[in-house]
Specification:
This protein has 327 residues and is α/β, with parallel strands linked by helices. The chain contains twelve helices and five strands.
Length: 327
């Protein structure tokens, strides 16, 4: 893994001084007062190549301007019942913080169906969560823990993963590409839990395709991962699906309590949704809130993402053929 030097950062700063004021303004929204750390993220994403990192960052800034990403936290998805459908079909939320102060993002990969709205709403919602994490959650964590927080940990629940997940490859590739190009190096570690056979089979063929820095971030934990995760976070911050073996579902909270961080009724989603509505009210006099998705240009997936998607599709087909022969 490449070491990022002060000389690389200095050269990168010099290049950024030459961009126009509009790009500089949106760059401020990204770095939130920590420009060096942001440049380091883009340098890591391009293996220390200053020229490539600069192009990547400028492309990101132009994408933000063209798609009005700086204003996306003032674009609520309404009505609330419709937004609840998004939350029930794209299972993602924040369950707490690690002992180091990193936000713990939980994702219900296996039980997300993405069947309640068009792809544009899911992309809008995903970007809003990214922006809220980076502009609200992480600055707040930085103050709370007394050190700069710029990354999170993600716990991916594979409960319920089935061959039908193949239908979601396009959407997941779009989301993954948006993250790779515009939010690089924001996740410190990915923890995979409740992994069924189908995941294990795909992981064997996908793992060699990943870049080394990505492979090092991924840990596949036994069972629900509770024992391992308690080494880096307190029990209260564990996602609900990790709090007991055989929890069986990412969708439902335990005993009727509100510990399901995927639910719109969870405090995290209530705070996020209320924040977006408040931001919208501040700008409503200029542009009334309208029902409709906030369309964002989808970037073309990179070679790595395309190859991974194709490999997953091939492996799924192999498993289907194998099951057909055995039946």
């Amino acid at each position: 893994m490449v070491t990022i030097t002060q000389e690389m950062i200095r050269q990168f700063h010099k290049l950024m001084e030459e961009v126009d004021d509009q790009l500089k303004t949106t760059f401020e929204n990204i770095h939130q007062g920590y420009p060096n750390e942001t440049l380091i993220r883009f340098l890591k994403a391009r293996d220390g190549n200053v020229s490539k990192a600069h192009k990547m960052l400028v492309d990101c800034l132009n994408w933000r301007i063209q798609n009005e990403i700086d204003n996306i936290l003032a674009k609520p998805i309404i009505p609330t019942d419709f937004y609840r459908g998004l939350r029930d079909s794209h299972l993602i939320g924040m369950s707490g913080y690690s002992k180091e102060g990193l936000p713990v993002i939980a994702v219900g990969v296996g039980l997300s169906t993405f069947d309640k709205a068009s792809i544009h709403y899911y992309v809008q919602s995903h970007i809003q969560m990214n922006e809220y994490r980076d502009r609200v959650i992480m600055p707040s964590a930085t103050k709370k823990f007394g050190r700069h927080i710029s990354t999170c940990v993600k716990v991916l629940d594979m409960t319920g993963l089935k061959l039908s997940a193949l239908n979601q490859i396009k959407l997941l590739t779009v989301i993954s590409t948006i993250d790779d190009l515009n939010y690089p190096e924001k996740t410190a570690t990915y923890y995979i839990v409740n992994a069924p056979y189908i995941f294990s089979a795909c992981w064997k063929v996908v793992r060699p395709l990943l870049q080394e820095r990505t492979r090092k971030k991924i840990q596949v934990l036994p069972g629900c991962g509770k024992d391992e995760l308690l080494k880096i976070m307190d029990y209260e911050s564990l996602p609900h699906f990790c709090k007991r073996e055989g929890s069986g579902s990412s969708r439902h909270s335990r005993n009727g309590t509100n510990d399901n961080c995927f639910s719109l009724d969870h405090p995290f989603h209530q705070q996020l949704y209320n924040y977006i509505k408040q931001q919208a009210e501040l700008t409503e006099s200029r542009a009334p809130i309208r029902h409709g998705s906030f369309h964002v240009d989808f970037p073309e997936p990179g070679i790595e993402d395309t190859k991974i998607a194709q490999t997953i599709q091939s492996e799924f087909k192999r498993i289907v053929d194998q099951n057909d022969r055995s039946n």
